[in-house]
């Protein structure tokens, strides 16, 4: 009799979050128990539901958090309980990851299981280093083997005599510690010493590093730069293609560690833009959004929104919470009536337009003062306005619009509070490894970051989305080296890219 539970043997891919399959994401989101390895991208943990139990069993080098036999017993026992278990492994679970053994244990226990393949670093690592493992000009076959065994042992199961004579590309995993012996074995069995070889460390992540040499030289090169695991090695003439198609390590922000301090829900837009430019992004949310303390008052003001001449939105958060409340009361968008709508900037306007409402006013400068300047061009005397805002917002808008003769009501849609969870270990990561840049998109992110008590990393600069945030940074004795000219996320990203581009072009760099 099979249990009602199921175990998913899931490949987490090589490291880049964008290379995780849709099926893997579905399994992680539905998991009751997540059993994961050390090499899995830690951001995957944030995809789990709040009630998911996370169990780290990862193995790295000779350090085993949990022996394989205990892992087997764990996933069988939890599946028998009727739970949805995800056994998450770096790369592909069936490529040198003992997924076959775990599947056999589950089958022997007569419990349900599913294998979810992942992209292996054996393929993705060379690709991200600009090395195609197959190429019409160089080879028509590919051999993958493990370097985890010692080739000097008489009982090794790796046939180096055969491998040395085999045509095409050879890729091996988990062999950095035995690199010299592996290369010597190839040469001793007939491979040309000048055969090209490349090693790609932390492949597909922004910590990726690639070294290139020959079978005769690569071990010395690796020793000279203290090259260490985890890495994938690729042997063959295809390595020569790297000089032409090294795309990933040529991205403008490659190798730059950048911290994003936005809320977990909002971090995606900024993180994605930085990742696409090659940055190593650390998402360290310093704030999270909570409902207003007076929820009844908020609901009542939303209900009467149709009575106002203007609705003013100063953040995407306010837009989302306003319309969530509105549509929980009204089933017809026409119930909003015909107020004019103002947005403080393009991001807020885009959010409004996603609800199929047109924005009537956007200032040239995306700050409160810019909004006031835009309203001065309108005739607003004696008009009623509902300002949908955060509890902590500056009172500039209300005070200045009142001076212009408008009748302004403040609708507190949400409040920002300190983020207390750190599921991915981002704080420890920042403390131990530092960063090149920390981004701030509001005064609240500045205040709450400083409240964490983390020492400012050496040689790290601050980037601000605009003058108000910059002023808050200065109040905390942090000088914003970068300030977006256009006070939105695209403007901030452009300023960051320009900053590092200028550094790379400077004679002293």
- How many domains? The number is 4
Instruction: Please work out how many helical segments DSSP would assign.
Output: 18
CATH first level of the largest domain: Alpha Beta
Overall residue-averaged pLDDT value:
91
* Radius of gyration computed on alpha carbons: 28 Å
Question: Which strand order does the major sheet show?
Answer: 3-2-6-1-7
Secondary structure: number of strands: 22
Q: Indicate the low-confidence ranges by residue numbers.
A: none
**Main sheet, how many strands, which sense, barrel?**
5 strands, parallel
The rough form would be described as elongated
The percent range for helix content is: 25-40%
Which structural class do you get from the secondary structure elements? alpha/beta
CATH topology of the largest domain: Methyltransferase, Cobalt-precorrin-4 Transmethylase, Domain 2
Beta-strand portion reads 15-25%
The CATH architecture term of the largest domain is 2-Layer Sandwich
Relevant CATH superfamily of the largest domain: Tetrapyrrole methylase, C-terminal domain
Q: What's the end-to-end separation, in Å?
A: 67 Å
